[in-house]
Design goal:
Layout: E1 23-27, E2 30-35, E3 38-43, H1 50-58, E4 64-66, E5 79-86, E6 92-100, H2 105-117, E7 119-120, E8 123-125, E9 128-130, E10 132-139
Antiparallel strand pairs: 1-2, 2-3, 4-7, 5-6, 5-10, 8-9
Length: about 140
C-alpha cells in the first residue's frame, strides 16, 4: 500500500492475498483501504469483492512468485506448450513437453529449463497447501 494514490509514493505496508480490507475512499483508479497496520492506497484492480474471493478459493489461479525468464528467438514462429507438476511449496517438480511447433528442439529445452527454475505461490485450499498442474504456453 502506498502513502498516496501515486505509484512513486512511499510504500507504507503490505497486505496478504485474501486478506479482507475495508475501503475508506476512492480516487480515480486508486482505493484507500485500512489494515491492522494502518491505511494506504492501492490500485482498484488489486482488490476483489467477496464473491470473487470465494470463487478464487474454490478454484485457485496459480501465480508466479518468480516467473520463467523469457526465451527470445527473433524470426521464429510457432508455439511451445509445457505441462508442469508443482508441489505444495510452489516448486516445479516435473515437466512434460506437450507441443513444439517451432521446429527447434533447443528452444523448447530452454523454455522448459526456464519453467523449471520458476517458483509459484503455494495454492491454499481451506488453509491447506495443494499440489497442482500448470500449463505453460509460449507463442513465437
Amino acid at each position: 500500500m502506498h502513502a498516496r494514490p501515486d505509484d512513486k509514493s512511499r510504500v507504507v505496508t503490505h497486505f496478504k492475498a485474501g486478506e479482507s480490507v475495508p475501503v475508506l475512499s476512492k480516487k480515480a483508479d486508486w482505493v484507500e483501504v485500512q489494515t491492522a497496520m494502518g491505511s494506504g492506497w492501492v490500485h482498484q484492480n488489486e482488490l476483489v469483492g467477496a464473491e470473487d474471493a470465494q470463487q478464487a478459493q474454490k478454484n485457485p489461479t496459480p501465480k508466479f512468485l518468480h516467473a520463467p525468464s523469457p526465451v527470445t528467438a527473433p524470426g521464429v514462429h510457432g508455439t511451445i506448450y509445457i505441462e508442469a507438476d508443482v508441489n505444495t511449496d510452489g516448486d516445479v517438480t516435473r515437466t512434460t513437453l506437450l507441443e513444439n511447433t517451432t521446429g527447434l528442439p533447443d528452444l523448447a529445452e530452454k523454455n522448459t529449463a526456464a519453467l523449471q527454475r520458476s517458483k509459484f505461490y503455494p495454492i491454499l485450499i481451506r488453509g491447506e497447501r495443494k499440489p497442482f498442474k500448470y500449463y505453460y504456453r509460449v507463442d513465437y
